[in-house]
Amino acid sequence: MINWIKKLFNKKELISPQERERLGRLPKDQAAREFGVLLYELCVKQAGTFVNWELNRKDSPFKGMSAAIMLHEMLSVTFWLMKTQIIGNDQNLMDVIHDQYFRSFSSTDASSEERQEMLAHKYKQYDGEWDTISEHQDEFGLCVVQIMFGKDPDVQMREKLFWVIHYSHEALDAFVSLKKVWKKLKQPS
Description:
This protein is mainly α. The protein has one domain. The protein has 8 helices and no strands. It starts with a helix and ends with a helix.
């Protein structure tokens, strides 16, 4: 409870007032592109921090998992959360985020189009499992864990679910202020 209270009062802005002001002075298309790059960087930081923390915890249920597999799945989750909960259906902004992702993490196994299709498939899976009514995200957490580990149940499944769900809610809490920034950037001058 004490940690929750501390967190409540320690919300820090992800984008400084100076950066918001600078973005607001740019032409709308340039501001959107730069905002997309900022969002991408925030997603990577959020997912990377979680993966690093989880894989370095002694009692982590993710112990022994490939850091790359976990990072890419948590990035997919984070991009999806950004799309569905923060920026809405602005495909241009998602294209900027995805473009940054594909350039930062090049893959010789798949083309950009194939990688885009893989992300779209994951987003569709997440959409089907995210519970906006009760806001209990057990099925969503299970979906993400099964993508990473397969469908075979294991002893630590519930703990993995907990941490994926916890991460998702923490990311949303961290990103909530970005929704206002995006709405302001989209407003006509």
